[in-house]
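Q: Could you fold this chain for me?
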Amino acid sequence: MRGIRRRLAVMVSAVLLAAVATACSSEPDGGLPPWHNGILTIGTGPTNGVFNQIGVGYADVVNRHLPGYEALAPPTNGAGENLQRLARGDVDIAFTFADVAADAAAGRGAFAGKPVRLRALARVWNSYTHLVVRADAHISSVKGLQGLRVATGPKGSGTEEVALRVLTAAGLSPDRDLNRTSASLSQMATMMRDDALDAMFYTAGLPTVGITALFGQAPGKFTLVSLADVLPALDKAHPNIYTAGTIPKATYGLDRGVATVAVPNLIVVGEDMPIDLANKLTELLFTYRSELAAVHPEGGNIDKAIAPQTDPLPLHTGAELFYAAG
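A: Sure. Below is the predicted structure, expressed as structure tokens.
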């Protein structure tokens, strides 16, 4: 809710500004074209991941319900790459993790010295870190990965960032203590099936299609490892980002639920997006939430009560006006 109370005091002025500043108009007005000539590109994720599924659904909502605009939702490597693309102007809207967004806004990590001027439209669902292992490897903790063949997700992705932090929190050096590789979700799944990997990390909403397929194609061959023991060290190193989560046993047909690490997901834009366009894009998330839920169950977890809680990023003014209006 950061900033909403403060903004309420100047709400009238902000609305007036949005109404009269034609430079901030997203609709054609007096012959002016819509922002970016009406093309909005959404940074999503791998084709068999939740970001891509809901991102494609969101693009469809925009195309049908936002006159003057066409939305595109190409697959990407996910959270980290999406923000790099947003910084370059290759995408206009990005699905991302709160931890990656924090680094991008502060200009640290992969964004060292190059902070990205981000604003949030909404906090949406959580992503859960899956540590998938071969059942016959008898791995019961992150520590047990030492010396093994481990994939940490697509290079530069949010999944990779979480995986490296989890490994470090467990006292392992990702590049000294493991035989580590970076790969896409589909590549990791293939390598797991071919016994070319002992374990793989992937962080996403539930269920993740690629992981559902992996478990379904080889029942009993793979399982998930709990990450509960690394959360205290992870939280100490990266405060107020990660929380405890559980992957229910029914999600992938396992015999028990698995404790893991969860990270909030955000939908973000550049601070230069016009106020009324950001306002409308935020409104569409809630007006057509049932359509997003039909694409993937996590779409139904977009909750207006928590959506404005986008720390570490401030809300875009257009989104802030939407939530303040009730």
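A (continued): The domain at 127-263 is CATH 3.40.190.10 (D-Maltodextrin-Binding Protein; domain 2).
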